[in-house]
Each structure stands twice: as structure tokens, then as C-alpha cells.
Amino acid sequence: MNAAEDEFFDFQTEPLDESGWTIKNVLSMPIVNKKEEIVGVATFYNRKDGKPFDEMDETLMESLTQFLGWSVLNTDTYDKMNKLENRKDIFQDMVLYHVKCRKDEIQKILNTRERWGKEPDECEEEELQEILTEVLPNAKKAEILEFHFCDFDHSELDLVKCGIRMYYELKVVDKFHIPREVLVRFMYSLSKGYRKITYHNWRHGFNVGQTMFTLLMTGDLKRYYTDLECMAMVTAGFCHDIDHRGTNNLYQMKSGNPLAKLHGSSILERHHLEFSKTLLRDESLNIYQNLNRRQHEVVIHLMDVAIIATDLALYFKKRTMFQKIVDQSKTYENWNDWTKYMMLETTRKEIVMAMMMTACDLSAIAKPWEIQSKVALSVAAEFWEQGDLERTVLEQQPIPMMDRNKADELPKLQCGFIDFVCSFVYKEFSRFHVEITPMLERLMNNRKEWNALKEQHEAKVAAMEAANKAKEEAAAARRAWCLLHCRAAVCCSHDCPTDSSRGRQDRKRLTEPQSSSSCFNSELHEQSPEVRFTNGRNEIFNGF
């Protein structure tokens, strides 16, 4: 722009400053951000050489304004990120407030007020240990070392106490200097972190942790892992489904849940993992607080691998690798040599651990029948609840497994689930360690029970179909019989199908004089009633 010739610069009747500077040439361009929004204007006045701005100056100016646009956008983005981070911290604090074990709740286990007249954080570790020795259940009496453990007779608080006992049985409390109060707060907070839903609640979370503990101790899989790794694996079992919503990964994607946008794969599993890490970042809940840096990295990594492994999609990918490890174990005559070989390779240990998590997550299917049958109904009920949501919210037809209108197919679905998902992992673990055979035996027994129910249902359906078919055949025969008698002008049954308008027309036609082309010709009328009946029946049946 030539400022001297533009009316916009008429105000320049004299120099603009004491140096005598005036505007002669102007180069001005908008500053545009990535969203193509004008966020400012860049203006240059008077080239130093006194010449007007040219195309080269415009090109340089365009590059500069693009850079300025990005800079402004980055600044805005940074401010927005800070605000989002602050909001996240606020929401996280709100969640922790409702999840963390309160001072009055911890007294249900560590009753220091009643015992010592002070709060747990004011007590010595020896004093807290004295209380825990009295209130924690005996491992054998509580049967937490058994594959057939049943939580039905235990309250949720009892399960918290049983969980604390497991850390003592693993001998990690003193070894890794876990503060007693922190351990109690952590386990209690885990129980509160699970939602009050039909199946994926604290009871399920505890059962998975208990099965992991039993596989390690009773199943003798602990021989492959250090105490630190065992602690991480049991903790992962307790945490693996925390804050579950009662719907699966596919529903999160279909419903557009923010979790699906945040996590590309293993959506819920990654959420459970992040929730667990959030709890562990709180100093009052961090049972790993006295580990060194290397130890802390190990336990967090193992929790990552273990919790993500509960995604069944990953289980199917790793089955072949696990089977090869089991086959390889059979080539060793000396069990100690095999143990040393297993412990040398981290990848092998993680594959076995991933399979252990699957075996734990599905462990309800390998419980005694009186337990499995009840748990299966809880699982089915939660699936049906998701099916209802799919039908009402998503306006989609749910798959049979989640359709409550097909509840009678549950035995058939359970048999299929055992055959195609569960049987492999328990068969291979039974081959791997004979101590785990009871799980396979109960699985097979449950398969027989479900199959018996399936056959009973199929027999009932077949009987109903046969009855309906017989009823239809009887109705068809009755219609034919009635039509025959009407044709012979002898039917008087009130439920005769010919009592319809069509039947009345047929009777009228039959009672009227017939022409020579009629089926009842004069020759037929001359025959005896028995002959007319026989011929009429033949004619009706030929008509069909």
C-alpha cells in the first residue's frame, strides 16, 4: 500500500514523531490459526531502503504470519490444557474422596480408638499388628488357599480382611515394609472402588485375587516368581475390574463412551489399570511406597501386563504360546532345572502370568456346581441388562447371550462358553501343574450339569413341538371330517370349520339341486347313503 496516496492516512499532515518519521508504505496481513480463524494482524511500515514492498516481502510476510498463527494457537492450546488438567485434578479429588477409606471406616478393622484411644496414624506398627493378628481370619479356616473358595457366606468386609491376610501369607508385608494402616486403607478402598452392580463388583474382584493367590500357593506356580512379582500379581487380581460399568468394551464403542475415545484398545482394562494407579499414587493408599525405584518399576509393569491380559481378545492370541511352554516343560525330567529355565526368561513368565489372569477371571466356571450355577445367573443377569440398554438406548437387537428373551438358552450358551473359551486354559494348566487339576475336574463336572439342563430343555422344546404338531394334525383331521359330513349333509357340530361363511356357502351349495356338471350327479343321488359317504370322502381328499 502507498500510504501517501491512501485516504486512510490523511491524518499525516506532519511527521508522527520528533525524528520526522512518516508512513509511506504499508504491508499488512491477517494472522490465522489452524482453525482458519483470524486472531490478529501483522503490519510492517516503510522498508529501510525506502523502496515499496514487493512480492518477495509478501512471501516472507506469509511465512511469518503462519508462524505467528501457530504460536497463538499453541498458547491458547497450552492454556486450555492447563485448565483441563486442573479440572481433571478436581474431578480426581472428588472421586478419591468417595473411594478412599474414611477414618470411621478403618475403625471397622483397626479399632484403635476403642483399643488405644487414638487414631491409627498415631499408633506404632507393633500396636497395629497386635490388632490385625486378632481380627484377620485364619487362612485355612477361611479356605482362601482352596480352589473351591466360596464368598457367599462372607460379608464384603470379611473379604477385605481375607485380602489383607493374603499379603501376610505371601510374606511381603514385612519384607517390603508395607505400613499396616496403608495396607488396610488400600484394601478397603479397593472394595469401595467397585460399583454396586450385578456381577463385576467387589466380590468378583476379590475372587480373582483369591484365585491368583491360590494358583501361586496351592498350584505351586509361585516357584517361577519372586515375592515382589507375586505381590504385584495378587494386587492386579484384586484391581483388575475396579470401576467396571456392567457393560463390555463393544458397548463402550457403540455408545460413544469417552473411555472408547481415550483408549484405542482393551478399553475397560486400561481404565481399570489407570484407576488402580490413581489409588496407588495416593500416599495413604500406596502399598509400594517403600520400594526402591527399580522394584517400583517392576510391580507397575507387571500390573500393566496382568490387568490388560484380562481382555479375552488377547487371551486367544497368546494361547498357542502358552501351549508351547507347557509342552516344553514336559521335556524336562528334573523339575528344578525347568524352574531355573523358566525364571531366566521374562517373556515366558509374563505369558504364563497372562494365562493365570484369564484362569482367575473365569474361575467361577471352575467352582463347585452349587457355586457356579448361582454365579452364572448373576453373569447372565448383567448381560441381559446390557442387552436391554442395547435395545432401548442403541436401538439394536442384542446377541442371544445378552437377550433376556432367550434366557432359556443359557445352558446351551454355557456349554459353548466352556468348550470354546474355558476348557483350553484349565486343561493346559492341569498339564502344566497337576496341583491345578481340581479346577479342570470341576469345569468338566459343570459342563455335564449344563449339558443335562440343555438336553432337558431341548427335550421339553421337542415335546412341545410334537404336541403342537399333533394338535395341528388333529385339527386338520377334524376339519376334514367336518367337511366330509357337511358334504354328506349330516354335520351339525357347533365347532365345525364349515360353520364359517365359506362353510355356510358350501352347505347351501350342497343342499341346492345340482346340475349335471356337479360332483353330486343324479347317479350319485340314486346310490345308498353309505356309497354317497364313501364317494364324497374320496372326492374331498382328492381335492386336498
Automatic annotation (TrEMBL):
Binding site for AMP: H200, N201, W202, R203, H204, D241, D361, Q414
Required cofactor(s): a divalent metal cation
UniProt binding sites for Zn(2+) 2: D241
Catalytic residues (UniProt): H200
Coiled-coil zones: 440-480
Stretches for region Disordered: 496-524
Any single Pfam family the record assigns to this protein: GAF
A GO biological-process term: signal transduction
CDD domains per record: HDc (cd00077)
Top-level division of the source organism's lineage: Eukaryota
Binding site for Zn(2+) 1: H204, H240, D241, D361
Co-factor binding comment: Binds 2 divalent metal cations per subunit. Site 1 may preferentially bind zinc ions, while site 2 has a preference for magnesium and/or manganese ions.
Record InterPro entries: GAF, GAF-like_dom_sf, HD/PDEase_dom, PDEase, PDEase_catalytic_dom, PDEase_catalytic_dom_sf, PDEase_CS
SUPFAM superfamilies: GAF domain-like, HD-domain/PDEase-like
SMART domains: HDc
E.C. number: 3.1.4.-
Keywords linked to the UniProt accession: cGMP, Coiled coil, Hydrolase, Metal-binding
GO MF annotation, one: 3',5'-cyclic-nucleotide phosphodiesterase activity
Domain PDEase: 124-457
Family: Belongs to the cyclic nucleotide phosphodiesterase family.
The protein's name in its UniProt record: Phosphodiesterase
Provenance organism: Betta splendens (Siamese fighting fish)
Lineage: Eukaryota, Metazoa, Chordata, Craniata, Vertebrata
